UniProtKB/TrEMBL annotation:
TPR repeats lie at residues 614-647. Keywords: TPR repeat, Transferase. Residues 5-99 form the Glycosyltransferase 2-like domain. Pfam families: Glycos_transf_2 (PF00535), TPR_14 (PF13428). This is Glycosyltransferase involved in cell wall biosynthesis. InterPro entries: Glyco_trans_2-like, Nucleotide-diphossugar_trans, TPR-like_helical_dom_sf, TPR_rpt. SUPFAM superfamilies: HCP-like, Nucleotide-diphospho-sugar transferases, TPR-like. One of its GO terms (molecular function) is transferase activity. PROSITE patterns: TPR (PS50005).
Length: 689
């Protein structure tokens, strides 16, 4: 029976090493651990598992350290793992079987790379060479991304490799926290740069360099390196599919969709079933607003067969990711039923894919009909665990469906340990139900040392401010100001203290067109500034991005509480330029709650001050349509189309408006001339459309 030596190099791997070594029990005959300078208890952990431990001074060369571990191995076979990896439970049996095969010199092994973070991760499979016969001539080469496959072939030209299909390694080193903790990106870039200076013709090394540049978001440089690595490559190179995908991604990151699509075309001529190339080609078509080609690309990605391991296909490319993009496309064409179907497919393929669930929640409009949304959601998914209930509660909270969110947040936090974020969300939901005493009770539980304490204080202030309690509002504002707030947050709090509910009546004044007087005043100031070429001088409050984000959140909550007068009182004190820049977002908030008159006022203001914005004209047209002003809506849709003829929504909205007008006109005609068959026929046709 053949023996197997596990060879490892480690440095400060106390958090990972027990999991790795435990997974190899029964699979290997000896543990060889070479330490390159640990300052934690990695050595003690390795010894506790019976490992033979030695030290090797780190010299910036992974191969040198790996070869030191091989020199200590006595087994017939070498298995090498990193500390952030583990064998799956069934791998021990498989390992014993395949090492009994006499004609094989080494094995490629399936590795499952976990990406993302602990709360949300995904799996990217790949093939790696990790198992080979222990021979003195077989030694690693390369300072980083060390190689031994070619070395074995150089030493033994008859060497034969196989793929160990069911021997599987799990790798956790690409999780965000692992990358950040070890600063892997910068370390790898430094090592590969030095190695390339010594061996500039090494195509594989240049590929790895391009991938590291891509991960460091240096997309232009990555594209150059990956293109150079691909130019003239042997089409049989096992890493070519991955190289092509990363080249596409680098071009996309660099804002070069044409080059990305050309790479997709070349790649599919070599690998016609490569789902990743279809998927990322679809994204490039989307970037160019070529919606038909994008649709076909995502459909092709979803229809591809199981991908070979060496493609290292990203998870969900043939499933939840492709379905999600098809749902997004359906929304572009104003087809919510089709979009909902694709989002449900996406969630069915991956029940933890938050973007799909968030889109489903948004389309169900739970703030309008919470009970209907609840029934639909519970048919789609099983939210029976506290964790699932909290997850759904969070998404509903983010969609401002406070009443329904509160139900799930409360049912999901029945245990003794409630996360601070959940407690804060519950308090805000209670506030939005005007259950202020209950909200304040939760908010006062946050101690000053809690990172969420400033947010808890701010929400206490809002509870009292909405109720018109001047004394408590000012007291809490003073407390908040002592916490070292950002300039933007301090400005919003100051804004709140200068506009208390009992002062709001003055801001309800309107002009002869029913428009708030301060909006007309802001328009005059902006026009005066435009005519003079200088910004209008006002005493209005100016806010940066963080302050605007906070203010919009407060406005949304005020509109949700039907406190429009309070909302207007805050808006009245903004600088006209700030108000002009955010009028579109404010109008959309009002439209979300079907406050059509207010929505129309702000969207019209935004459209007048941003005449180049087709989206603003479209939003205003939607409001005018809902207000029953079909002729005005038709004009606005046409203006939007003239500015942006590649936007499908504008065509579809206009077509539907014409269909509605046609039906209404035919109904009037039939009422006037009920005996005319042709009119009745036309009406039936219109009603069937």
């Amino acid at each position: 029976m053949s023996t197997v030596s596990l060879c490892m190099i480690v440095k400060n791997e106390a958090d990972n090493l027990p999991r790795c070594l435990k997974s190899t029990a029964g699979a290997v005959d000896e543990l060889i651990v070479v330490d390159t300078g640990s300052t934690d208890n990695s050595l003690e952990i390795a010894k506790s598992f019976g490992a033979r431990v030695s030290s090797f001074p780190w010299n910036g060369n992974f191969s040198a350290a790996r070869n030191a571990s091989l020199a200590n191995a006595s087994g017939d076979w070498i298995l090498f793992l990193d500390a952030d990896e583990e064998l799956t439970p069934e791998s021990a049996r498989i390992l014993r079987q395949i090492t009994a095969t006499p004609a094989v010199e080494g094995y490629f092994v399936k590795i499952l790379n976990y990406l993302g973070n602990e709360n949300w991760n995904e799996v990217c499979p790949d093939l790696v060479f990790r198992l080979f016969r222990n021979r003195p001539a077989y030694r690693f080469r390369g300072a980083i991304h060390e190689q031994i496959v070619d070395v074995i072939l150089e030493q033994n030209q008859t060497a034969r490799y196989q793929t160990a299909e069911n021997l599987i390694i799990r790798h956790y080193g690409y999780l965000n926290q692992a990358i950040e903790a070890k600063d892997k990106k910068n370390r790898n870039l430094r090592l590969i740069q030095a190695e390339l200076e010594r061996d500039p013709q090494n195509r594989l090394l240049r590929y790895h360099y391009g991938v590291e540049l891509y991960r460091a978001e240096r997309f232009d440089e990555a594209a150059v390196e990956l293109h150079q690595a691909a130019n003239g490559i042997d089409p049989a190179a096992i890493y070519l599919p991955k190289l092509l995908r990363y080249l596409v991604l680098a071009y996309q990151g660099a804002g070069c969709p044409e080059q990305a699509l050309e790479t997709v075309r070349i790649g599919l001529s070599l690998f016609p079933n490569y789902a990743d190339l279809y998927y990322y080609g679809g994204l490039s078509h989307l970037e160019q607003r070529d919606y038909v080609q994008a649709y076909h690309a995502f459909r092709q990605a979803a229809a591809m067969p199981e991908q070979p391991c060496y493609y290292a296909s990203f998870s969900g490319i043939r499933g939840f990711r492709a379905y999600y993009q098809l749902g997004q496309l359906a929304e572009v064409f104003l087809n919510p039923e089709e979009a909902l179907k694709y989002y449900i497919h996406s969630l069915g393929d991956n029940p933890a894919f938050a973007p799909a669930l968030r889109s489903i929640v948004r389309l169900l409009k739970p703030q309008d009909d919470p009970e209907y949304a609840r029934q639909c959601l519970e048919k789609i998914c099983d939210f029976c665990t506290p964790q699932a209930q909290l997850w759904l509660g969070q998404i509903l909270f983010q969609e401002s469906a406070y009443a329904l969110a509160l139900q799930y947040l409360e049912s999901g936090s029945a245990g003794p340990q409630v996360p601070g974020e959940v407690k804060l969300w519950r308090a805000i939901c209670l506030c939005q139900q005007r259950r202020f005493l209950e909200a304040l009770h939760l908010l006062k539980e946050f101690p000053p040392a809690d990172p969420l304490y400033p947010l808890a204080l701010l929400n206490q202030l809002l509870c009292f401010w909405i109720q018109g309690n001047r004394r408590k509002t000012l007291s809490l504002a003073r407390q908040l100001q002592t916490l070292g707030l950002s300039e933007d947050t301090a400005a919003v709090i100051s804004l709140l203290t200068h506009v208390l509910p009992q002062q709001q009546k003055i801001f309800e004044l309107t002009d002869s067109q029913g428009q708030p007087i301060f909006l007309a005043w802001a328009k005059r100031l902006l026009k005066r500034g435009q005519d003079s070429g200088k910004p209008a001088k006002t005493a209005g409050v100016r806010l940066g991005p963080d302050g605007i984000s906070l203010l919009l959140d407060i406005l949304l909550r005020l509109i949700d509480l039907n406190e429009s007068a309070l909302a207007e009182s805050l808006l009245n004190r903004l600088d006209p330029e700030v108000l002009s820049g955010q009028a579109g977002a404010i109008g959309q908030l009002y439209y979300r709650y079907q406050r059509l008159d207010e929505a129309c006022q702000y969207l019209r203001f935004y459209a007048e001050t941003h005449p180049e914005s087709a989206a603003a004209l479209y939003d205003l047209a939607e409001v005018e349509r809902d207000r029953g002003n079909a002729i005005h809506a038709e004009t606005l849709y046409r203006q939007a189309l003239a500015l942006d003829p590649k936007e499908p929504r504008f065509y579809i909205a206009l077509i539907r408006l014409y269909q509605k007008l046609r039906r209404e006109l035919l109904e009037e005609a039939v009422a006037q001339f009920p005996e005319i068959p042709v009119l009745q026929k036309l009406l039936r046709e219109a009603q069937e459309q």
